[in-house]
C-alpha cells in the first residue's frame, strides 16, 4: 500500500500529474493506493493516534532542521493566502498580532520575549512583516524557503500562533514535540472555514477590521466547526 499526502480543494492535481500517476499505478500493478483528501482537518482519527502518526512522520532533525527557537519564544506562522485564493477576505493586520502577542506574554508595554516569524519567501518584504519587526525588539524572521526547516521550527515551538486556514501550521501544532504546547488560532467568525477542533487550543475571534481581537479564548462549544 502507498499512502499519498493530502491535497487541498484549490489544488489542481491533474495538472501536476498526480491523478494520472495514481490511475496508471492502480491499473498496471497490484499496489493499492489510499488518497487522503485533507482528512486530518476534521477527523478524530489523527487525534486518537497521534503517537503513531508522529513516529511515521518523524523528521530527521540533524538533516532537516537548521535552527530551533528558544523555549520562551512566541513563534508566529504567517501564510499569505491573498496571492493564492481569489475573493479571499483581507488578511490579518500587524495590530492583530501585536494585540495577541501582548495578550500571550501578559504585557502592555515593551515585549522582551523573543518573537520568531515563519513566513513565505514572497512575504519577507510585505508591510505586515516589516511592521512586526519594527514593533518588537527581539524578532527573528525565517523566510520559509526551506519548508523542512520551517516545519521544524513550528514543531519545536512551545507557544505557537497558527496561520488562519493553513494546514501546514496546523499539522506542525498537532505533531509538536511539546506535550503542553500553547496553540493560538485566529478565527474570523463562529463558523471557521477550517474545521479542526482541539480542546486544548486557544481560539481568538478576529474583529471586523482584522486589526484586533473581538474576543479572546472563545470556548469550542460556542464554535460551529465545519465538516466539508
Q: How would you describe what is shown here?
A:
It is a single chain. This protein is an alpha/beta fold and 228 residues long. Helix content is 31%, strand content 15%. Strands 5-4-3-6-7-8-9 form a 7-stranded mixed beta sheet, sandwiched between helices. Strands 1-2 form a two-stranded parallel ribbon. The radius of gyration is 18 Å and the shape is globular. The chain starts with a strand and ends in a 13-residue tail after the last strand.
Distance between the termini: 26 Å
Low-confidence stretches: 1-17, 84-89
Report strand %. Answer: 15-25%
Mean pLDDT: 80
Largest β-sheet summary:
7 strands, mixed
Task: Please outline the helices and strands.
Blueprint: E1 2-4, H1 13-16, H2 18-28, E2 33-35, H3 44-48, H4 50-56, H5 61-64, E3 74-77, H6 94-105, E4 115-118, H7 127-135, E5 139-142, H8 147-156, E6 159-161, H9 167-174, E7 182-187, E8 202-206, E9 213-215
Parallel strand pairs: 1-2, 3-4, 3-6, 4-5, 6-7, 7-8
Antiparallel strand pairs: 8-9
